[in-house]
Amino acid sequence: MAERAAALIVVPGPIFTEHISRLVDLTARIRLPAMFSRKEHVEAGGFMSYGTNYSDMHRRAAAYVDKILKGAKPADIPVEQPTKFELVINLNTAKALGLTIPPLLLGRADEVIE
User: Fold this and answer.
1) Other Cβ atoms closer than 10 A to 106
2) Total-model pTM
């Protein structure tokens, strides 16, 4: 009996970012819904992502640089964890996979790509 995965969760990592086009093409070819950690993967054709908002993290990093340039010691600045996350859904990919996304989930998405 041949079994098949129902979906794929792609964990964050440089190898996946470097080969995102290949990964998106492969999951589309075998009609496998894949959830990613970065919005860019969904913009490249992936199905869905939930993860850190990197633009927000870059703004927070700029605030750290500002504090250091104003004389704060890096060791005295508290470490922060990401606080802003985003859910992005690609409806074109969902349609190609034959998936219907519940309206409640679409309403909670930060961005819906059509």
Assistant:
1) 13
2) 0.82
Read off the tokens for 31. 């009609």
Give the C-alpha separation, 38 to 26, whole Å.
17
Residue 18 reports pLDDT greater than 80: yes
Which among 93, 102, 95, 111 is positioned nearest to 38, based on CA atoms?
111
CB atoms within 10 A of CB 27: 21
Beta-carbon contacts of 12 under 8 Å, excluding residues fewer than 6 positions away, are: 37, 38, 51
**Distance (Å, whole) CA 63 – CA 42:** 28
Kindly report, residue by residue over 40-84, the tens digit of the pLDDT: 899 999 999 999 998 899 999 999 999 999 999 999 999 989 989
Q: Which residues pair with 36 in a beta bridge?
A: 49
Distance CA 93, CA 99 (A): 9
The one-character DSSP state at 49 is: E
